[in-house]
Design goal:
There is one protein chain. About 35% of the residues lie in helices and about 20% in strands. It is built from ten helices and 14 strands. Strands 10-14-11-13-12 form a five-stranded mixed sheet. Strands 1-2-5 form a three-stranded antiparallel sheet, covered by helices on one side. A three-stranded antiparallel sheet has the order 3-4-9, with no helix packed on it. A hairpin with a 3-residue loop joins β6 and β7.
Amino acid sequence: MPKIASIVHLENHIRFLLQENNCVVVPGLGGFLTHYQPARLIKTRQVITAPSKKIAFNEALQASDGLLINHIAKINGYTYAEAEEQVSKQVAGWREMLQNEGKVYLQEIGTCTLNDEGNIYFLPDPKAPNLLLDSFGMEEVEAIPVERQKTDISQHLQNAATIEAPTGDRKRKWGWAMAAAIIFIGFFLLVGGYLIFTKPDIQENLSGFFTGRTNDTEGAIQDEQPSTEESRPIISDAPEPQPDNRIVNDETLSDEPQMTGLENSDPLVDEPDLLTETAPVLEEDVYYIIGGSFSRQRNAEKLVRSLERKGYTPGIINTDFGHFRVSITKTSKAKEADSLLSIIRQKENSSAWILIN
């Protein structure tokens, strides 16, 4: 029986359709199936293959689903009947080769052979291209085995046991070093404590550091307008004295608290020292009406400027413990001092008091 000439290259169409389909039925021969095969490590060749599609064959799938014939008709411009006739001729030629030679090779697909029972046995071509589109362009990767060195734990333990223990001389050196470090730290703490508790300026700087207030930030705050300052009453940190002891001397105010009304709540700025001179040396039995006491000189100067705008003759009196007292006015007569204190308490500051110097 002569061979039927092949007009269409049926293998090419089968391979193309298997890239996007899991099954392609060849009428009169059987169905070619594909299933996903993940990447594999081939130890004999020491390579890692890319994921692929593995081709299988099922002779029982004989009914045409039209996929192959429609594809051939579309590619070659045939009618469905013409394409079906071409496929039939090709399959008849393969069947004839199976009967005569016992096998037929489908290029880059696999080999079909007849077993003893007359059934077709399919063996995929190991050199066939990868039909999985997601693995396009991926090649085999060489798998180089990693040689791990075995560590003898007993040898490490033996080496650790033979480490030289500290001798008596080394212990004595460590003891002297620790003693010297303790003495140095103790000396540093003693000197630092002495400076902190004996220097008011250091106390003030540390207080500003821990409260998050520095001279730069205080100086960056703008001074309030004169109209607002003039309308605010003068506030003092000193507690309001009782009527029977409103006249006090300088010695009884050594523990006077700082002024909270102007110093802590009002934003102040670093201004030029307008009143850098301390109060002049005053004569005996001078009565000062005190309107505030401050730990910072610029706060006292700010109150002085406010009082001057109101028509008073204020001044600053320094103390031995670092505070700056602001006198609203002064007099050399005790009765006049009582009258002035009463007026100032009503108009300016209810906590004003008299200082005799």
